[in-house]
Design a protein that fits this description.
Layout (H helix, E strand, L loop, with lengths): L3 E3 L4 E6 L10 E6 L27 H6 L16 E13 L4 E14 L5 E6 L8 H24 L3 E6 L13 H8 L4 E4 L7 H9 L4 E7 L4 H4 L4 H7 L6 E10 L6 H17 L4 E2 L2 H6 L1
Parallel strand pairs: 6-7, 6-9, 7-8, 9-10, 10-11
Antiparallel strand pairs: 1-5, 2-3, 4-5
Length: 293
């Protein structure tokens, strides 16, 4: 069973008042200070939102939504094999007063996630789709986002599974990015075909044999294949009894294609990931937090 520590230890609610997609805006901040084993009682410091590095508090997914989110305080110490994840909630419930209060935000939790019980899932990282603009977008995204987290996973002995179509049954949408194929050829990651997992439960049973409890989803595209493939996130949710596997998604490690506008595509990605977390289907792990994990 995974143990969790809520971000109510010490959190900051950041409000981006000018809207979505990382717009430069005024920031209103409310802070809560509590004393616990993980933080001293003190006023928290606002992270530098312009600083895009692993230590600067910058978070591209959360900021691009324009919605409130919690951040662990400066005194928090993340331990080995712990991951920070987010779920969107709309209200709080006061046990003493027995009443609800509106407080929409991404609520964060830190939880144990042992490497040997975790798998990284990559859906359809193709280089041979019929649309050249999509192939180019995927190629750049693989280099910028997927390869770093795959390398991090391999370095920590986390299983990595890549899923694609069987080239014997279809003439396109089968070949994966060359850098990923190289990892397959060198037995660093697993390459599976959907044909072999027509019944999703087969993959669940394979994961059970390996004692894997946590699936972290990435790939293309956020609102389609990542969700609805045989081994996609929704199929795993329904096939594992809703509680055998803990499901996560890394928004920045997925892409959504619905328009030529990048802003619209980001909005679709954000909406899908927010919906998954709010409905309790999958929690959100940011790209930066996975790289720290």
């Amino acid at each position: 069973m995974i143990s969790k520590r809520k971000c109510s230890i010490a959190w900051i609610t950041l409000i981006l008042s000018l809207g979505l997609y990382g717009c430069k805006s005024d920031i209103q901040v409310s802070s809560i200070t509590e004393k616990s084993e993980h933080t001293e009682e003190k006023e928290l410091i606002i992270a530098d939102l312009q600083k895009n590095d692993l230590g600067g508090g910058y978070n591209s997914f959360l900021e691009s939504t324009g919605l409130n989110y919690e951040v662990f305080g400066e005194g928090f110490q993340q331990e080995k094999e712990e991951i920070i994840s987010y779920s969107y909630i709309y209200y709080d419930y006061d046990d003493k007063l027995q009443q609800y209060s509106t407080n929409p935000r991404y609520s964060c939790t830190v939880q144990e996630m042992p490497y040997e019980k975790t798998a990284l899932i990559i859906i359809d990282p193709w280089k041979d789709s019929p649309f050249e603009e999509i192939n180019n977008a995927v190629a750049k995204h693989v280099q910028d986002y997927l390869l770093p987290i795959i390398t991090h996973a391999i370095d920590n002995d986390i299983c990595v599974y890549i899923f694609t179509n069987n080239p014997e049954t279809i003439d396109y949408d089968t070949k994966i990015d060359d850098s990923l194929q190289s990892l397959v050829d060198n037995n660093k990651v697993f390459l599976y075909y959907y044909d072999d997992y027509v019944i999703p439960k087969k993959f669940v049973k394979e994961l059970e044999k390996k004692n894997i409890e946590n699936l972290v989803y990435t790939g293309y595209s956020t609102h389609l294949c990542v969700l609805y493939r045989n081994t996609g996130l929704m199929e795993m949710y329904h096939s594992n009894g809703h509680n055998q596997l803990n499901l996560y998604i890394i928004p920045e490690a997925t892409l959504a294609y619905v328009a030529e506008s990048e802003d619209i595509n980001i909005q679709m990605r954000n909406d899908v990931c927010t919906m998954l977390s709010q409905q309790g289907i999958a929690e959100i792990i940011t790209w930066e937090d996975f790289m720290r994990y």
